[in-house]
Design a protein that fits this description.
Elements lengths: L10 E12 L6 E12 L3 E5 L6 H8 L7 E6 L2 E2 L5 H11 E4 L11 H12 L5 H11 L14 H14 L4 E5 L7 H16 L5 E4 L3 H4 L4 E6 L2 E7 L3 H11 L8
The structure holds adenosine-5'-triphosphate (ATP).
């Protein structure tokens, strides 16, 4: 069976006392407030919480797209802050995949070229068999010669998912990957992310607002005001809805 670069049971990424502060003094916003969390390899983890609770900030810091003001972030055993620019570029390129809400495909390239672009840039030779496996798993073979403008949002996001997995990264981060999609197209993306974990051993961390999306995962981490306030294993839509309701301010006085 094909597998990605993760070892089951290992920690794929971790933050230790990570804080992110925007602004100073009375105007300071603690987007992350002393967050210590592990993400297990070969698991599908959701990050949830009210708007502004720090979900994107956490995932961007874990993916080395952003840096915490204090504390540490590890991808595998590597503490990100110890890397120089070249090391950071290599880590982002070789170990991290990212799926954005807005797909972020290159408009002038075909689907196939978009999928292979990160490997081209890295000078890595794509594994033909793995390419076929990923393309078939996302079900996008009939759109490979098309450009993004000729694809639906769901098709573009499938290409983006294939691109994220193509280099067999240690970890894939997805920030609201179904946020722009209808429920059918969204379900296809979620089924693919689930399958990439179950069948290929990929590690996936997904920010979502959607309790149905969260029910595809193995574990939900809940954030509020930049802090981890709980987690749920084997989440169901109903249980996630109940937890989310408990996290919302009950009335404007609580805000
Ligand atoms: N560049 C920035 N400058 C100042 N404040 C910021 C910046 N980025 C984020 N914030 C603030 O940090 C907090 C956390 O933002 P973040 O985007 O991580 O939250 P989120 O949970 O992902 O929100 P949403 O669900 O609305 O996308 C918010 O209060 C936000 O306004």
């Amino acid at each position: 069976m094909h597998s990605t670069g993760t070892t089951p049971g290992a920690v794929a990424a971790r933050t230790v006392g990570a804080s992110k502060v925007y602004g100073r003094g009375d105007a300071a916003i603690h987007a992350l407030d002393d967050v210590t969390v592990d993400v297990a390899a070969s698991e599908f983890t959701a990050v949830m919480g009210p708007s502004g609770s720090g979900k994107s900030t956490l995932v961007h810091c874990m993916a080395a797209l952003d840096t915490p003001t204090s504390g540490s972030v590890y991808i595998g055993d590597t503490e990100i802050s110890t890397l120089d620019d070249e090391g950071l570029t290599r880590l982002r390129r070789d170990q991290v995949g990212f799926v954005f809400q807005e797909y972020n495909l290159i408009p002038t390239l075909t689907g196939k070229e978009n999928i292979l672009l990160p490997m081209d840039i890295a000078g890595r030779k794509p594994d033909r068999e793995w390419y076929d496996t990923v393309v078939d798993a996302v079900g996008i073979r009939d759109r490979l010669a098309h450009r993004p403008a000729e694809m639906s949002g769901g098709q573009q996001q499938r290409i983006a998912c294939a691109r994220a997995l193509m280099g067999r990264p240690s970890i894939v981060f997805a920030d609201e990957p179904t946020g722009n999609l209808d429920s059918v197209a969204g379900a296809a993306i979620l089924a693919f992310l689930r399958r990439s974990v179950t069948d290929f051993g990929q590690t996936v961390v997904m920010v979502t607002h959607d309790p149905i999306a969260a029910s595809y995962t193995d574990r939900v981490i809940f954030l509020r005001d930049g802090k981890i306030v709980g987690e749920l294993r084997s989440p169901t839509t109903q249980l996630v809805m109940e937890r989310m309701a408990a996290l919302q301010p009950r009335n404007p006085v609580d805000v």
